[in-house]
Amino acid sequence: MAEAPDRFPRARAERTIAATRIAIASFSLYAVWLDPAQPERFVQLTYLLHVGCIAYSLVLAAVMWRRPSTGWLPVATHIIDIVVFSVAQYFTLGPSSPFFNYFIFSLFCAAVRWGWRGTLATAPIVGVAYLGIALANSYILGATDFDLNRFIIRSGNLVVFSVLLVYLGRHEARLRDDIRRLAGWPATVGDDAEAEIKRVIAYAAGVVAARQVVAIWEPDQEPRVQVAFWRQDAFELSRHASAEFEPWVSDELQDIAFLYSNGADGRSATTTGGRRISLQSGAPIHQSLAAHVTPKLVASAAFRTERLSGRVFFGDLDDATTVEILPLVEVVAREIGASIDQREMHSRTRQLAVGEERIRVARDLHDGVLQSLTGVRFELQSLAAHLRSDSLADTRDRLISMERALANEQRELRFFIEDLQPMRTETHHEGTLAARLQELTGQLASQWKTPVTLRMTTIAAPLSNEIEQALPRMIHEAVVNALKHGEPSRVAVMLHGDGDDLRVVITDDGHGFPFEGQFDHETLMRQNLGPVSLCERVRSLGGAVSVESRPAGSKVEIRLPVAAHA
Q1: Among the four residues 301, 362, 460, 528, which has the most C-beta atoms within 10 Å?
Q2: Are residues 299 and 437 in the same domain?
């Protein structure tokens, strides 16, 4: 016999059946003892059979208590139940036997174990067994002693209980199938918003069994609505002014789910629980929306999320659809709303990411290539001013130095462009961080004709790739700022690992910043002081900048959370 999907844990099903079998046998024995007139004959045999059934039930309870309702043993037990109950009925006047209830019990056992298919397979077997017992007893007892009325009533009971159990099983199977489809709701993870929304609405139409769907939603604080029209052969997603579809539904149905039929009673809609609402304006759906969904039978529900609100209309439903579908429609509408909200969040996140990437690109170009080109420009100005007084050899050396600087910046720019390519995780610069920083300070000293020294202590915590890539650019900006604005005779760079933080200090003996004093990161940002671009870069990495400016020089200190990035 085919097994139904898990209705509840299989071992629990067998425990329920075992306990019910013992209870029925015990109450039946008590009933016979309380009223021995029923049955009129074979009272002692009935006692003995009931006692045997209790013993049989206890044995089965011990055997099946922790076994699942799978495999051959539950099937064998089910067959033995029917055989034992049939024999007990045969020896206790058949149609009038108190053991008839065990046949009903067998139907319920089949429903618990195997669902509606189990009931459908058990009902004919039980019916044939009951009919055979009745015919045999009619032949033995004769027409006068055979209780025809009770036989007809109990036969009807078997048919009615079988039909009801099959119906309930089918209904439960449909509910379970709806839950399974809701659990398999598609995720909206692609970049094509229209295709993802179409896929979600098509899936929702399959869950509700609708052939037409209209979804309309309005993002919060935006004077526009988006409308999606779906049919099996077409899909359209468009954007409109909010006033174009106001109101979506009549005032009586604003926040509730409803089922509307454009039939004889076209001025009312049915809501959850079967409550009918009379409509002041007739049709409950805006004319522009109703034009895309067959108004013969429409189910609709609203949804609301953190970023938007909307409503879904399911049209061209089956003629047999009733208000029982509305709870499912409400759940599906909420799922559609959640999927659209996810798309909105994905779109906004992507826009923010693009904006942040543009800011990063602009910052890197400003702090890297543009700063270096500024140094080259100043060097060219200086060369032009002293060209007449310098020897040709000295001019040649300076031009070669400038050519090397431009070549280095060309390489840095190439690496930077490669950084923008997706799925590129390898380190672009050869050598260790110390070697790269040593090369950087050497280039700056050569370009600006000012000593730039570098001192690094051991950094205990490993540096993330993000910090390793950003550190040379931050030091480059800080040093160039000091050289360009402070006119120092020397600049010193020190890196020191301070517990979970990396501390970078750039000092110079120039004339400092245009302001005097010591300022922390928040003060610098609030008052727009110091190296603003450097502060923004450091803040993007979760770090902080502090500046100390005096007439005799300045100190810029950068602290980066190494452990957090690692």
Answers
A1: 301
A2: no
Report which DSSP code applies to 212: E
Q: What is the mean pLDDT of the chain?
A: 78
Q: Assess whether 234 and 173 both reside in one domain.
A: no
106 in the same domain as 201: no
Examine the domain organization and report whether 228 and 159 are in the same domain: no
Name the token pair of 260: 């509307």
For residue 554, the SS3 value is strand
- Count Cβ atoms below 10 Å from residue 181 Cβ, excluding itself: 16
- Does residue 369 lie within any of the structural domains? no
C-alpha dist (Å) from residue 523 to 6, 74, 477, 511, 547:
64, 77, 20, 21, 10
CA nearest 428: which of 441, 413, 443, 438? 413
* 103 and 210 share one domain: no
pTM over 0.70: no
Instruction: Give the DSSP letter of residue 497.
Output: E
Closest CA to 213 of 222, 203, 225, 223: 203
Q: What is the pLDDT of residues 340-360, one digit of tens each?
A: 888 877 777 776 766 677 667
Distances (CA, A) of 75 to 8, 82, 86, 102, 165: 18, 11, 17, 16, 19
Q: What is the DSSP string of 439-483?
A: HHHHHHHHHHTS-EEEEE----SPPPHHHHHHHHHHHHHHHHHII
Are 16 and 41 in contact by the 8 Å Cβ rule? The answer is: no
Residue 69: per-residue pLDDT = 65
Please enumerate in sequence order all residues whose Cβ is within 8 A of that of 381, keeping only pairs 6 or more positions apart, or say none.
none
Number of domains in the chain: 3
Residue 555 in any domain: the answer is: yes
Cβ partners under 8 Å of residue 223, min gap 6: 241, 242
Nearest-CA neighbor of 483 among 526, 447, 527?
Answer: 447
Q: What is the pLDDT of residues 484-539, one digit of tens each?
A: 888 899 999 999 887 778 999 999 999 888 888 999 988 888 888 888 888 888 88
| CATH at 231 | 3.30.450.40
Phi–psi pair at 285, nearest 5 degrees: -110, 140
Residue carrying structure tokens 């099937």 = 75
Residues 404-429, mean pLDDT to the nearest whole number = 52
Q: Angle at Cα 167 formed by Cα 260 and Cα 78, nearest 5°?
A: 160
Which residue range is the domain that position 136 belongs to?
A: 10-182
Q: Which residues touch 340 (CB under 8 Å, ≥6 apart)? A: 197, 200, 215, 217, 305, 308, 310
Which of 341, 362, 387 delimits the end of a domain?
Answer: 341
CA distance 359 to 371: 17
Structure tokens that stand for 106 in this block: 């067998």
4 within a domain of the structure (yes/no): no
For residues 487 and 549, state if they share a domain.
yes
**Pair 257, 285 in one domain:** yes
242 in a structural domain: yes
**The tokens 């208000």 sit on which residue?**
323
Residues 203 and 268 in one domain: yes
Do residues 337 and 283 make contact, with C-beta atoms less than 8 angstroms apart? no
250 closest CA partner among 298, 213, 210, 218: 298
